[in-house]
Amino acid sequence: MSIPGFCNGILFILYVLTIMAIAITADKKRGIRIFFWTYNADQLIYMQDSNGDENFHLHLVNIHSKIVRDLTPFQGAKAELVELEPKFPDQMLVALNLNNPQKFDVYRINLKEESSPVVPQSTGRLDKAQHILHVPEQHL
Question: How large a percentage of the chain has pLDDT more than 90?
């Protein structure tokens, strides 16, 4: 069994049965304060801004390979997690203010694709059971 932990802002995986901890990130700047599991057992997501600008990006880290990918690599944009759903373990919904700093739109991100394409979704009501947005007609 493994659980995430952190020390001095660096994420670790603690292997409980073997009493072993392995660093999976190596941030030397501000450290990592917000992190969570995806529904894929080998992936963690963490949020981090750049030098205190509060424009958080979502980063995906594979706990085995230790490869880290910025899922929201947009300069000046802020990302917020909207939804992770067990029925869709390879996807997440994220709010981003790409077009207007005051307005967040919801985007779907594929966690398995290397390029992590962001697929725009119109604003509307989130249906968690279907992992889709219902869009009012005035937004179409």
Answer: 21
Question: Is the separation of the CB atoms in 3 and 12 below 8 Å?
Answer: no
State pLDDT tens for residues 40-50: 989 999 999 88
Residue-level length of the chain: 140
**Tokens at residue 48, please?**
């981090």
Distance in angstroms (rounded) separating the CA atoms of residues 6 and 34: 10
For 113-131, the pLDDT digits (tens) are: 776 556 555 455 555 555 5
Rg (CA), the chain: 16
Buried b (16+ CB within 10 A) or exposed e, 11-31: bbbeeeeeeeeeebbebeeee
Q: What is the residue type of 109?
A: I
Is the pTM higher than 0.85? no
- Which amino acid is residue 17, in one-letter code? L
**Rounded distance, CA 67 to CA 115, Å?**
13
For the four alpha carbons of 41, 113, 65 and 75, in that order, the dihedral sign comes to: negative
